[in-house]
Every structure is written in C-alpha cells, then in structure tokens.
Amino acid sequence: MKILIHLLTAAAVLGGTSLADSRVPGTRVSYKVQKEALGGTNASMIFIDAAEDPSGKTYVSFVCDLGAPYFRLDTKYSLVN
Question: What is the 3-state secondary structure (H, E, C) of the chain?
C-alpha cells in the first residue's frame, strides 16, 4: 500500500496538475494527476496497460478516491457471465 502512495505522489510531483493522461516514455504506464473539486483531496490515477491487448481496453489502475487508494481491473472481455 505504501508503494502505491509513493507512486501516486511521484506522479503528482512529476505531472503537475494535468487533467489529461500523461504517458511514461518507453513503458505501458500512464497517469493522471488531479484533485477533487470539493475537498481538494488527491484523485490521481495510474494506469498500466496489458501487453497482450493492443486495443488499450485491458489495464489495471490505481486510483485515489477521497484520498484513499484503490485497485481496479478493466478488461476488454467480461470476466463473468
């Protein structure tokens, strides 16, 4: 969990207050640095694209929501029927 917080902090420092996704050159990683409008808490995100899906629809993301980090998995195909 501490590693995730460090990654989000690094993204915030490197990315300023950008609203668009920023790519890390030479990797499948992108990030978005932002703050929540009402409370000003961290709402930044880190995305890691799957190597096997060139469409960009399969990725994991680490998202801060109300200042707490969460892990999400988004896939091109449904994982449950």
Answer: CHHHHHHHHHHHHHHCCCCCCEECCCCCEEEECCECCCCCCECCEEEEECCCCCCCCCEEEEEEECCEEEEEEECCCCCCC
**Token pair for 77:** 């195909």
Within 13 A of 5's CA, how many CA atoms are on the CB side? 4
- pLDDT (tens digit, 9 = 90+) per residue, 21-80? 898 999 999 999 988 888 888 889 999 999 988 888 899 999 998 778 999 999 988 878
